[in-house]
Amino acid sequence: MGRTPLAWAAARGDTRSIVTLLSHGADPNIIDVQLSGPLSNAAAQGYSVAVRLLLEAGAHTDIRHSSGARKGSPLNVAARNATDILLLKSLLDFGADVNSSGNDGRTALAHAARKDNASFAMLLLEYGADINSVSTDGSTPLTTAITYNCHNVLSLFLDRWHEYSVCPRLTGPNLLQVAALYADCRTLQILAASDHFKRHYDKQYTLGDFRSCLM
Known about the structure:
Elements: H1 5-12, H2 15-23, H3 38-45, H4 48-56, H5 74-81, H6 85-93, H7 108-115, H8 118-126, H9 141-147, H10 151-160, H11 175-182, H12 185-193, H13 207-214
Helix pairs in contact: 1-2, 1-3, 2-4, 3-4, 3-5, 4-6, 5-6, 5-7, 6-8, 7-8, 7-9, 10-12, 11-13
């Protein structure tokens, strides 16, 4: 697999072994055949102290593979799996690309939206995350929140969009169609209470368009 002792120690969150290996010159930037390194291993398991030790030892927050292959960065996997916001903040403070993504095009903000983790989403937005980033399947963080009925993140996006972006209502997929396909009652209530649907833009869509979606 091409994994070093440091990579295994990071995957277990074994901080004592990490310190010992680093003090003997272990390279924190060797990646294995799956394009993961010690930092990704620690981030994926939510080991905040291990992540901090590796960052302070010079671990790269974003690794570009020579083949051009893309895999989710440590920030990306942390947004999917971690629970400690300080882990994400450490990665961001050490220069992690807030809008990095894997082959699926999903950014850390999209993963936070799918998990309905509003604290992660707010932190990522404060570090410049693109609220209108588009994944390979055409979804955005906002449509992800609607699709998976993630009410906390959806409310955050709609209440504070003006702090981060142009109106997300007018960017990306048509939100009414996404809502017709996936939204539960609470999601519909949140959307109805916002100003984003009170626009002439929606008059071009007929009732029949949404009746076909609902059926």
